Each structure stands twice: as structure tokens, then as C-alpha cells.
Amino acid sequence: MTTTTTSETGGPAGSLARSLGLTDEDLVAMYRRLALARAIDERMWVLNRAGRVPFVISGQGHEGAQVGIVSNLRPGFDWLVPFYRSVAGVLTFGMSAREIMLAQYAKAPDPSSGGRQMPGHYGSAAHNILSTSSPVATQLLHAVGIGLAARIRRTGQVVVTALGEGASNQGDFHEGLNFAGLHHLPVVTVIENNGWAISVPAAKQAPIVDFAERAAGYGMPGVVVDGADVIGCWRVGHEAVERARRGEGPTLIEAKVTRLTAHSSDDQQTKYRTAEELERERLRDPLPCFREQLLEASVLTPEGVAAIATEIAAEVNDATEWAEQQPDPTVASATWYVYAEDRP
Ligand SMILES: Cc1ncc(C[n+]2csc(CCOP(=O)(O)OP(=O)(O)O)c2C)c(N)n1
User: Fold this and answer.
1) Residue 330 has what DSSP assignment?
2) Is residue 41 part of a domain?
3) What CATH number does the domain containing 191 carry?
């Protein structure tokens, strides 16, 4: 098994997408999801700074990889095991702006946990999105377990899971990939490599540059893709998901993304990232990159971009106001599911 590197950036997006079987409507829908994820994320920061929500951990810079790859799953049939930056991923897989805001406000109707999980740990039983645990990389084992169940039951379901490059140094990642490779499980693992694990740069995390190389140790293909290249991400996601669906086994994808914000609302990244780096990283923002590609290919017009922005602003306002009005969890619900005898 070899590690391959792929990038579609710079190609004429319209004809390339058509050659891949993507319609203009598909591309516009993907752009809308990217833009919606960004707008929700930006709103979270405003709410945090205004003292309305306790904590933000951002997906800004990761959205292109998430939308491109997750668009290949069948919502309501396949499974998504996300991580805390997966705002665009869970939106692509069926969660709504309102549901995301419920989690931010920790409200009782929050589908992730009824307000008991840490914000950013998205989940929805209705959408086959597993709410994950805070220790990083533990979600790999859950994803592999779901993949094993799908294989035993012969359902044809595929699981996509995601984590950061820092988390890929945890034992759970290696145990999970080994088991998935050994049993040819339908699991696509996406390392969203943003170059940092909080304040630790990737070069101080592991003795390799491309984390996808690790796939070779587990008998599966490893693919590196530019996370600012949405169509390229869609293509590698498509190949990996279809391979899993055919029963040919797992794939490891490494999307080189950028972290456009601090690690979280409790971090000050100017303590360890230079102004030059932060400026340079803006060039790798998938949202303007994709918008420019679609404008150049006449898939979108400036008026179309503006109309989408207006719709999204209304959707984010609605989600914020609606979520804020929902009831808080009851005190009695705090220990639900902690003790066997204390369940509703
Ligand atoms: C097992 C474990 N160790 C430490 C932490 C604290 N922690 C939370 S996020 C994080 C950084 C993870 O970096 P990376 O996997 O590269 O993802 P990123 O946040 O950069 O997207 C750390 C160390 C944790 N949640 N779990």
C-alpha cells in the first residue's frame, strides 16, 4: 500500500467536477454548507465573548475537508464519528444550525446530550452521529466497532471518523487502525492536520511530515489531500467511501488544513504563532478558495454568493434566537446515564 498525494487546486472547477459526476447544484450545495458552517462558527465566538455561551472550539479552516469528504456518505444510513472541530461535517450529515446552537447553549433539547456534554461534542442519534468522549482519539475505537457491526450484519454502511494529527499519536488511533486494516472494515479515518496540537507544532509531535504514511503499517491506502481544495477532498473521500462500500476495507486520509482561530476560546495563539504565520494561513482558507473556483467556473455568480450569504445570516440568527429560548436541563438530569438506576 502506498501513500499518494493529490491536489486539484488551479484546475477549471466546473469541468473537473463534471468529470467526477458532480453537478453545479452539488457544488453550490457544498459551498452553502461551507459558508453556513463558517457563519455558525463565527457566531459562536461572538456569543462566547458576549458571555452567552461558555466555550468554543472552532472548525474554521477545516470546513473544506469535512464538506468534501462527508458529502460522499448517505445521510441517515451511514455513520459519522466526528471530533470537536466537525461543525461542517455534522451539518453536511444532517444536523441543523438550530441543533448546533442547542449544544452551544447546553439546552435540554440538545440532541448531542441534553446539555450534559461539553460544547463541541456533537452527536445525534437521529442522524447516526456518535457523540464522542473528550479524551482525543477514543472515537477511533467506537468508529471501528461500528464498522465491525456493519460488516457482521452485512448492511453496506460506511463509517467516517475524524481527528487531529496530534490525536493520531494516541494508542487508540493505532489500535483502531490496526483492527480496521486486519478485518477490512468499512471505516474511513480522516486526520485533519492543521499543524498544531494546541501550542505544539506538528514537527514536535511526530518524526514524519505526512501522517498518512502511517496507513502502510496497517495495510490500507494512505492519501494526502489539500484541505483547501474542496473538490479534491470530495474525490479522495469518494474513492475511500466507495472502496469501503465494496467491502475492500479502510482508508486513511490526511487533509492538510489550517486552524484559522486559536485552539479554543480558552487559548491565546499569539503567544506561540507569529503574525506572519497567521497572515499566511489566511491564504489557505477553504471558503474563499472554493468561492473563487466556483465564480471562475461560472458555477456561482456574485449575486448568487450574496443571496446565499443573506439566507445564511437569517438561518444563523434564527438558530441563535430559537436556541436561547429553549429550556435549560433540569438539575435532576445532571446524573442521567451516569448510574444505571438513574435513567429517565
Ligand atoms: C487524551 C487527551 N490528552 C489531552 C487532551 C487535551 N487536548 C484537547 S485537544 C488537544 C490537542 C489535539 O490536537 P490535534 O489532535 O492536532 O487536534 P486539533 O485540536 O489541532 O484540531 C489536547 C492535547 C485530551 N482532550 N485528551
Assistant:
1) P
2) yes
3) 3.40.50.970
Total residues belonging to the chain? 344
323 is a domain residue: yes
Residue 247 CB neighbour total at 10 angstroms: 12
If 0-12 CB within 10 Å is exposed, 13-18 middle and 19+ buried, where does residue 43 land?
buried
The x, y and z cell numbers of residue 248, run together, are 475492500
Residue 267 lies in a domain: yes
Contact between residue 253 and residue 72 where contact means Cβ atoms under 8 Å apart: no
Question: Residue 254: is its pLDDT beyond 80?
Answer: yes
Q: What is the domain range of residue 21?
A: 3-335
pLDDT tens digits for range 172-186: 999 999 999 999 999
> 163: which strand partners?
191
Distance 263 CA to ligand 1 centre (A): 9
Counting residues of the chain whose pLDDT is more than 70, the rounded percentage is: 96
The answer to whether residue 162 sits within a structural domain is: yes
Residues near ligand 1 with C-beta < 6 Å?
A: 85, 134-136, 163-167, 170, 194, 196-198, 263
If you take atom 13 of ligand 1, which residue's CA is the nearest one?
197
| Number of domains composing the chain | 1
